Amino acid sequence: MSYRDLLFTLVLALAFALLLSFSNAEETETTDSPEDSLSTEEYPLDMDTLEEFIQSYYLLLDSNEYLTKFKFINPEKNLFRGDKPALKGFYEKLLELRSGLRNRVSIYQIGDSHIQSGYFPGTARSSLQKYFGNAGRGLVFPLRLAGTNQPDDYKFSSSSGFNRVSAEHGLCGYTLAARDGSTTQLSTNNFYGVNNAFNKLSMISSLPGLKAKIDLPNEEPKGFDAKLGDYYYSTISWNKQSSNLKLTLQGESSKLYALLLENENPGLLFHSTGINGAGFYNLLDQPQLFQQIGMLNPDLIVISLGTNDAQGNYRNEFFKANLGKFMALLRAANPKTPVLFTLPPDSNKRKKHNSDLAKVEKALIDYAKDNDCAWWNLSDVMGGNGSVQKWRKEDMASSDLLHYTPKGYMLQGYLFYQAFIKSYKEFSETSPKGN
Q: Is pLDDT above 50 for 78?
């Protein structure tokens, strides 16, 4: 018997013993406490938290084995913090998804250049979808038409009809002006090892708005259009999934903010928005960004900002004020959505370790503790202060010691995935029905 099989057998045996002991206790004791009745309501019979604990444990065996080759990281620190109160409702939705009681769970991540390249969120998305189900690629945008870099798992090509709206950040980070008849070819691929084919496309534009039109052989797409506040929301769906189509925009000239790709499968949507140079301080004059996040109605918002705030002449009181203003705008549009902060990765400033990152980390953690948010300390998991130098030696950090290479960002995305599964496993292990 292999080491892995032995561990899995031990877990099963422990689980059986726990169930047996609880069963015997139920035969000799009866309680009518409010906690018992609450657990029955919160966890229907169809939701098996013990099974989730076992399944997630098995996943962690694989991830631990993969991470042993990276000697410079601290895997024992790789957990979400403050998540037991802050993310309880989100974890319950994941459990419902896995139990077939829910069709969709969505995550929205907003960040800076660490996120815009797509390697961090792409790795996290594909790894999580392999466990929770693949509901589609989620948000995409013609970023190259906006004159900036774009993730590798989709492509837009166009000859005319689009112009960048300078200094306006929409749901996908950038904004394009589009006119009637604008066309683009959209294709997806399996760069991260998951199928990104789709049969539903949604578009957000400004009023009066544009409609999306596609032409697929042997298909009669069905459309749905709605006005939501200051925006126009256009959706098309069809039968057979596709990874390549021509998209034509029809209607009055307006601003294009977002495109959303989905399929009909139950599962997880992981949307990500990266904006080069973004920080808490320079997104405060972008009300459309926060409003459009609310239109997504995400089940979890992941905030991956702070690196750029710690550059330049950092002042802690200004950072705290900007953080508070940012969160007030976010909460106005998403009052009940749980929030997870991913703390900035280690980096340098002026050719030496950026000591201001520790002040940013403390301010984010203090805010999270005071406002019922969770956090993930990426810098600690990476190896702590100065760890960017170790990542550089392994060709995982760029020569500027501020950014990371594609495989460095992919490792960070995988670390996020492992922290996610470890924290979800702990929830399913300690939830009322599981115990």
A: yes
